[in-house]
Design goal:
The complex is a heterodimer of chains A (about 260) and B (about 325). Chain A is α/β, with parallel strands linked by helices. Chain A is about 40% helix and about 15% strand. Chain A has 11 helices and 7 strands. In chain A, strands 1-2-3-7-6 form a 5-stranded parallel beta sheet, sandwiched between helices. In chain A, strands 4-5 form a two-stranded antiparallel ribbon. In chain B, α1 packs parallel to α7, α3 packs parallel to α5 and α8 packs across α12. Classes of the chains: A alpha/beta (about 260), B alpha/beta (about 325).
Chain lengths: ~260, ~325
């Protein structure tokens, strides 16, 4: 299994359900795969000491479902209900689904929740870690900066944010809508331990996380440079693919490109 | 009720290590007993209510019972969506503690008034909404609901002195308390304004008008049967709340009456409009809104006279 399996599942499910958010999901496919397959610890959802995960950019949940599925944490029959009536698997994740710790979908909620989860781990003397996967445009939200201050002030070293820096938001490029640059410097200025990584290099993501000191010091952030729509040439860096679903021919082309990728 | 709340929380904290207290940099001369007794379980998160509720959500998911504290309007409205998408949607035991309902912050002005908190809170199906009428009831209610599953919003008054005669600290979730019998009219009240309603009933008694007072401290779950029974016993009804007249207790009573087909004359007493053209003390602002004891008694007399046009209608001096 690899992130190319995750991409195939994203395309197949998005086509079957005829929904959008495909570009956002492809953007985090490698981050999601790295976390699901190589980082998050804790076997069962009932284990109180499992690592916690918050998909703060909830609109990319399809990538998370696909990664969970590829890692063996989400059965095919549940995945195949994606966006169906009565399904637990909607466009945005809901905690009623096994393996989803927190319901998300409204941007700016994830980091405060993650900070609380990390504080809880400290108070309970647990070595579990907390990961929050966010979007760059999500940093438009003021609550993100509240949580950044809080986590740094309390040295929540078991907390790691991962920012999917694809440079796009719903209606345009972040540099045109509300520029977040220089993102790494901003987080550094708030007292975080900042690591800039290639958000499509699973090895680099995993190695970087493996090198973080989760026991003491500052909270961590991976500022992950990504390409919106990564892996499908006609979707890459195209605003349209925030919302648009695929036609049959677009689906066929996209699947062929993803299958041909290493 | 602040002191009563903190006392109850310290007592609960002695027995239950899951209890943590977060404040948005408010609670001077109020929260110290908890902060001093449990410094490791007390967090001043700074002036950041959204983050405070988010942090509480993360704590509660891991098994803690976080109390988040601020002035009622800051505790309820600023982080409202965080409350909804956090403790409410996840059914986690976060306690939102809002101090100073209605116009209790007096000359601080309208930014500090909580006039719609009960309305926005009571529409959330998974949220318990409680507003004690005095500090004795606050003690009972806080102690009784420590272990309640799911989230709670507490609207606490600032008054740690006044007591509602006949209430004696009683509280039962989903029930109302009849603190005064009466036959001519019925006042249904919530929160700290209840002392004004009971004082109004005293004024009315002196005028020969018998006024019942029913105290609703559990707004959600609502004491539907108790309210319906009271409406059936007396059809001249006033609701009394330091809140806008839409969405809160008055609306609840109207919903119950219509749902059950109970015929009554209902006057919803509270703030009809935003009090943004005047400012003043709590007493002044409440009187201007018709919520002082004298103003409530005058309204009751008009209602009683209207419902019994042939009867003699005594008039209180304005």
């Amino acid at each position: 299994m690899s992130s190319s399996a995750v991409r195939r599942t994203i395309l197949e499910q998005a086509r079957r359900a005829h929904v959008g958010h495909i570009g956002s999901a492809l953007s985090i496919a490698d981050l999601a795969w790295a976390l699901c397959s190589r980082v998050l610890a804790g076997a069962g959802v009932e284990d109180p000491d499992r690592d916690r995960f918050v998909l703060s950019k909830g609109h990319a949940a399809l990538a998370w479902y696909a990664a969970m599925n590829a890692a063996g944490g989400l059965p095919d029959d549940l995945l195949d209900t994606y966006c169906g009536d009565g399904s637990l698997a909607g466009v945005h994740p809901q905690h009623a689904m096994p393996g989803i710790d927190f319901t998300t979908g409204s941007l700016g909620h994830g980091l405060p929740i993650g900070a609380g989860a990390a504080l809880a781990a400290r108070l309970q003397s647990s070595s579990r870690r907390t990961f929050v996967l966010m979007s760059d445009a999500e940093c438009n939200e003021g609550s993100v900066w509240e949580a950044m201050s809080f986590a740094a002030h309390h040295n929540l070293s078991s907390l790691t944010a991962l920012i999917d820096v694809n440079g796009q938001q719903a209606l345009g490029y972040t540099r045109d809508v509300l520029d977040t640059a220089p993102l790494a410097e901003r987080w550094r200025g708030f007292g975080w331990d900042v690591h800039e990584v290639d958000g499509h290099n699973v090895e680099a993501i995993t190695t970087t996380i493996g090198g973080l000191d989760m026991d003491r010091g500052r909270p961590h952030v991976l500022v992950a440079q990504t390409t919106f729509g990564k892996g499908v040439s006609f979707m890459e860096n195209q605003i349209k693919w925030h919302y648009s679903p695929m036609s049959d021919s677009e689906f066929a082309t996209a699947m062929a490109e993803v299958a041909a990728a290493p | 009720m602040r002191a009563a709340f903190v006392r109850a929380l310290v007592e609960a904290g002695e027995r239950d290590e899951r209890i943590v207290l977060l404040t948005g940099d408010l609670g001077y001369m109020a929260l110290e007993p908890f902060a001093d007794r449990f410094p490791d379980r007390f967090f001043n998160v700074g002036v950041a209510e959204q983050n405070m509720v988010g942090v509480a959500t993360g704590l509660a998911e891991a098994g803690f019972i976080p109390y988040v504290y601020s002035i009622a309007t800051f505790a309820s409205l600023r982080p409202y969506e965080f409350i909804r998408n956090g403790p409410v949607l996840h059914r986690l035991p976060v306690r939102i503690v809002g101090v100073g309902g209605g116009v209790e912050y007096g000359s601080n002005g309208i930014s500090h008034y909580a006039l719609e908190d009960l309305a926005v809170m009571r529409v959330q199906p998974a949220l318990t909404v409680l507003a004690p009428a005095d500090h004795r009831q606050a003690s009972t209610l806080v102690a009784q609901t420590v272990g309640l599953p799911g989230p709670i919003y507490y609207r606490l008054g600032k008054d740690d002195v006044s007591l509602v005669p006949g209430l004696d600290g009683r509280f039962e979730l989903g029930r109302a308390e009849l603190v005064r019998q009466g036959t001519d009219c019925l006042m249904i009240t919530i929160g700290a304004i209840t002392v004004e309603a009971v004082a109004a009933a005293d004024l009315l008694e002196a005028e020969g008008v018998s006024c019942a007072v029913l105290v609703v401290s559990s707004l959600r779950p609502a004491p539907e049967t108790d309210i319906a029974d009271a409406l059936l016993a007396c059809s001249t009804v006033m609701t009394v709340e330091a809140h806008y007249t839409t969405g809160g207790l008055g609306s609840l009573v109207a919903e119950i009456a219509t749902d059950r087909g109970i015929s009554c004359r209902l006057r919803r007493c509270g703030f009809d409009d935003q009090p943004d053209t005047i400012s003043g003390s709590q007493g002044y602002m409440q009187d201007a809104a018709g919520l002082s004891a004298a103003a409530l008694a005058r309204t009751a007399l008009q209602l009683v006279a209207g419902s019994n046009p042939q009867g003699v209608s005594p008039i209180l001096p304005a």
